[in-house]
């Protein structure tokens, strides 16, 4: 039986923003989707966030096999994302998390513990419907300055926005702002650490570290650059723990309290963690893996969730969250690695019975993890099968 808890967020606090439309500071890009406009109601905008895109060797080997199957060469990551592409593409702004730095097109490629992966992954991310990615993770500086530069250049070459790492101090200081049909949405990205590696002295701007005061200051800068909505991605938490740890809870309270920050999207733990409503805002502690294939695959690291957050304009340039949804996902690893939109496959009568049992169990587990911090009564909707 489906585990479904949640309801539409009907009442939330209002907050007046202070846009400055004549300012031009900030790196602004325009996603392909546009904010929804209804002739009889206020504008709405949906932001979709997803968990780790973690390119293990099995993942790039699958991309190579998919390229060959299509009569090509190299690496094709798009087929692995195909199952979730409709949900991603339907969002007004879709944000991924690219955890691993990329290599040169021909390699050499490396897996854990210091990743260097095929840059063609960015084309797959773009084909899936994402508009941009956060890049601050514990693996950001695995390949040093060159790895950071290659990753940013690969994202830009495929038309994806990026935030969380930078090629210069000036780039790091410029807030990333997406223009969604005139609605400016800022995206910020930070990591809890770099697996014992240190940023080069004088180049701390290379990758963003979680420091609440600096995050709050950056969000304020984004407001001054014209952002009407500010989304913060945080790579944090204790790996394989479904419960947010003490640092996550402390940082979340500090960061979401800022009047300049509207939404926190978390990742890193490789398992699904809960959503929590704080005032009229939401903290998504951990979305698990979006795409990964660990050396030891277990249910936990095959489960994920995409957060779909609807903002409604309540007055000119004033937005509040009116709906929070979770889309449970699963990574099939045999016979091919494929991302699965669980509500879609569970609503499909042609899904084989054996797979349906696996998918239903994953859906139910994910729904339980999401609700452990009172998200259900607060209004979180787990998207039902159908």
What are the SSEs and their pairings?
Layout lengths: L26 E3 L14 E10 L3 H13 L8 H4 L3 H6 L2 E6 L22 H8 L3 E3 L9 H14 L3 E3 L5 H5 L2 E5 L2 E9 L20 H13 L4 E7 L10 H11 L6 E5 L7 E4 L2 E4 L4 E3 L7 H4 E13 L2 E15 L5 E4 H5 L6 H18 L4 H4 L2 E2 L4
Parallel strand pairs: 1-6, 2-3, 2-12, 3-4, 4-5, 7-8, 8-9, 9-11, 14-16
Antiparallel strand pairs: 2-13, 6-7, 10-11, 13-14, 14-15
Overview of the molecule:
The chain has one domain: Purple Acid Phosphatase, chain A, domain 2 (4-Layer Sandwich), CATH 3.60.21. Helices cover 27% and strands 25% of the residues. The chain has helices at residues 57-69, 78-81, 85-90, 121-128, 144-157, 169-173, 212-224, 246-256, 299-302, 342-346, 353-370, 375-378, and strands at 27-29, 44-53, 93-98, 132-134, 161-163, 176-180, 183-191, 229-235, 263-267, 275-278, 281-284, 289-291, 303-315, 318-332, 338-341, 381-382. Residues 1-25 have low confidence and may be disordered.
């Amino acid at each position: 039986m489906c585990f479904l808890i949640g309801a539409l967020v009907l009442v939330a606090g209002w907050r007046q923003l202070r846009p400055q439309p004549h300012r031009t500071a900030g790196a602004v890009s325009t996603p392909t989707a546009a904010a929804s406009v209804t002739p009889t109601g206020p504008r709405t905008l949906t932001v979709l966030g997803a968990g780790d895109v973690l390119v293990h060797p099995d993942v790039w080997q699958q991309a190579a096999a998919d390229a060959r199957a299509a009569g090509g060469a190299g690496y094709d990551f798009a087929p692995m994302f195909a199952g979730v592409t409709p949900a991603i593409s339907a969002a007004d702004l879709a944000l991924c998390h690219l955890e691993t730095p990329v290599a040169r097109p021909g390699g050499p490629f490396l897996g854990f513990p210091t990743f260097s992966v095929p840059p063609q992954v960015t084309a797959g991310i773009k084909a899936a419907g994402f508009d941009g990615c956060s890049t601050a993770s514990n693996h950001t500086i695995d390949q040093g300055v060159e790895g950071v530069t290659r990753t940013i250049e690969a994202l830009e070459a495929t038309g994806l926005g990026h935030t969380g790492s930078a090629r210069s101090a000036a780039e790091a200081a410029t807030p990333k702002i997406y223009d969604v049909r005139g609605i400016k949405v800022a995206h910020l990205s930070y990591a809890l650490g770099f697996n014992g590696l240190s940023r080069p002295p004088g180049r701390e701007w290379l990758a963003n570290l979680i420091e609440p005061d600096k995050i709050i200051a950056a969000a304020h800068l984004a407001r001054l650059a014209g952002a009407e909505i500010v989304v913060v991605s945080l790579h944090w938490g204790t790996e394989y723990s479904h419960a947010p740890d003490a640092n996550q809870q402390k940082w979340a309270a500090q960061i979401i309290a800022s009047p300049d920050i509207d939404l926190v999207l978390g990742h890193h733990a490789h398992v699904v963690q809960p959503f929590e409503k704080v005032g009229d805002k939401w903290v998504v502690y951990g979305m698990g893996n979006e795409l990964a294939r660990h050396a030891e695959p277990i249910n936990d690291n095959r489960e994920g969730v995409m957060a779909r957050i609807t903002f409604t304009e309540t007055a000119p340039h004033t937005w509040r969250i009116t709906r929070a949804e979770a889309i449970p996902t699963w990574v099939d690893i045999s016979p091919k690695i494929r991302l699965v939109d669980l509500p879609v496959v569970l609503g499909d009568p042609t899904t084989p019975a054996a797979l349906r049992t696996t998918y239903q169990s994953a859906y139910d587990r994910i729904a339980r993890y999401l609700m452990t911090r009172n998200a259900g009564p607060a209004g979180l909707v787990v998207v039902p099968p159908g």
